[in-house]
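Can anyone check this?
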Amino acid sequence: MIQTLAVRMFVERGYDATTVADIAEAAGVAPMTVYRHFPTKEDLVLVDQNGPLVAEHIAATSPAQPLVRRIGSALVAAAATLTGARPDDPATGDTFLLARLQLMISTPALRARHLDSHYALQQAIVDALADDATDPDAAFRARAAAGACLAAMHTALVRWAEDDGRTELPGLIVQALVAAFGADAVDVDPAG
């Protein structure tokens, strides 16, 4: 609830013009309550459950599939989950995700911190793929594949934000992955 309110206030008033105290007051909580859940102002925009969600989707794939296909399909499935609104959770759905993404793109402080969350997502993917955690070559291949897939996804996310969310995000991610790796990159239809 606090994150949803914060994102709405950042969009309405501007990120720099909105303080954590403003958010706490609007939420009817003490500023320390906000900081307990979101240690920094940037976390109010950047904190999400994407890493565990992608890892869960990767775990459901066959280790016999190529790395790019496992990762790409998991990224598409996670995007479909994240853009699907749930009535019991206002921090879901494409409107909320789009607002967060547009803030990340337009706010320099958030762009810089977004790289940290990108690295954390890459590590979550590598950990989920850890079929043989003791093999440094396997870890290197997993990290390279994850980085490449995340670069394709980032391109799709920027396009989605620029398009103001008019195109389905999972379909854009599929298109970016297919453009980068070919038609076998994902386990879904590129048309959507």
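Reply from J.R.: I decoded it. The CA atoms of residues 135 and 141 lie 10 Å apart.
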